[in-house]
Write a structure and sequence with these properties.
The structure is a single chain. 36% of the residues are buried. It is built from 12 helices and 5 strands. It folds into 3 domains: 48 residues, no CATH class; 99 residues, Methyltransferase, Methionine Synthase (B12-binding Domains), Chain A, domain 1, CATH 1.10.1240.10; 121 residues, Rossmann fold. It is of the alpha/beta class. The protein is globular, with a radius of gyration of 20 Å. Helix 5 packs parallel to helix 7. Strands 2-1-3-4-5 form a 5-stranded parallel β-sheet, sandwiched between helices.
């Protein structure tokens, strides 16, 4: 989507109206915002595009077929998240739903497992997270793409709606409150949602603040919730500076020494975390959980 820099607000809104009228009805499409951002781009307009997509252009997507995956890959993923090796097929249906992105069937399969007396944490770890890690690895390898990841993430989210009340009741092996959100100008939440899921799965009290959060919101929520850890996510290089602004604002308001700050996202790294004064960097969801655990123990 490219408009002339001189385009008026009326022309901008008219272009969006035309876009949704032509593309959205009955069509499936993936809209990328600011993959490459031209000089002098108006970032407020990028945010508004995302808001209109969220409001007007989301379609009900059905899970498609996935390439068959061997048990060897599943068990390898299970081992990495600390789940015991399975000796039966009890979680096979749930794993398959995540791998294929079947957000409708997974709710019924999860409820069936709960009705049979299975532990909610086991369903999450053995059935869902191990499958999602397989999807993540295949995405890194270039054998699946963004649409497949989105479908799998959607299936995960639907299953969590069923599981979360049961997870909250079960014994927890971690303690502490964590706030997490995506910084202003960034509407991406797949990675953030994965981290939230895994943190809740090991027992953290997690408040998901959402996306496109201004500095003042982070500060206000830290004051309100008094968390042990604040997590920030960014997928765009253009939004990375917001992380430093949040940390500076926490210092200004006398809150920096009361909360640990961790960051994550594709464009950030450990050096950037140190440069902006964060307490740690999580390269992926699993590493973020271990980082949170280590900071809570200090």
């Amino acid at each position: 989507m490219l408009l002339e820099e001189s385009a008026t607000e009326e022309e901008f809104e008219g272009y969006l109206d035309h876009l949704f009228k032509v593309i959205a009805p009955g069509k499936r499409f993936i809209l990328g915002i600011a993959d490459t951002t031209p000089p002098n781009a108006v970032f407020d307009r990028l945010i508004r595009i995302g808001e209109r997509v969220e409001k007007e252009a989301r379609l009900p997507l059905e899970g498609g077929a996935a390439r068959p995956l061997g048990e060897k890959l599943i068990k390898k993923a299970e081992a990495r998240i600390g789940a015991p090796e399975l000796t039966d097929e009890v979680f096979k249906s749930v794993r398959g739903d995540v791998l294929s992105g079947n957000h409708t069937a997974i709710k019924n399969h999860v409820q069936d497992l709960l009705d049979r007396g299975l532990n909610a944490k086991d369903i999450l770890n053995r059935g869902m997270l191990s499958a999602m890690e397989v999807i993540g690895n295949k995405f890194k390898d270039g054998t699946v793409f963004i649409p497949e990841v989105l479908l799998s993430a959607r299936a995960m989210n639907e299953a969590l709606r069923v599981l979360e009340p049961f997870l909250a009741k079960e014994a927890k092996d971690a303690s502490g409150k964590i706030l997490i959100g995506t910084v202003r100008g960034d509407l991406h939440d797949i990675g953030k949602n994965m981290v939230v899921t895994m943190l809740r799965g090991v027992g953290f009290d997690v408040v998901d603040l959402g996306v496109n959060l201004p500095v003042d919101t982070f500060v206000a929520k830290v004051k309100e919730h008094k968390p042990d850890i604040l997590g920030m996510s960014a997928l765009l290089t253009t939004t990375m500076p917001e992380m430093k602004k949040v940390i500076s604002a926490l210092s200004t308001h006398g809150l920096r020494d009361k909360v640990k700050v961790i960051i994550g996202g594709a464009p950030v790294n450990d050096k950037f975390a140190k440069d902006i004064g964060a307490d740690g960097y999580g390269p992926d969801a699993g590493a973020s959980v271990e980082l949170a655990r280590s900071l809570i123990r200090k």
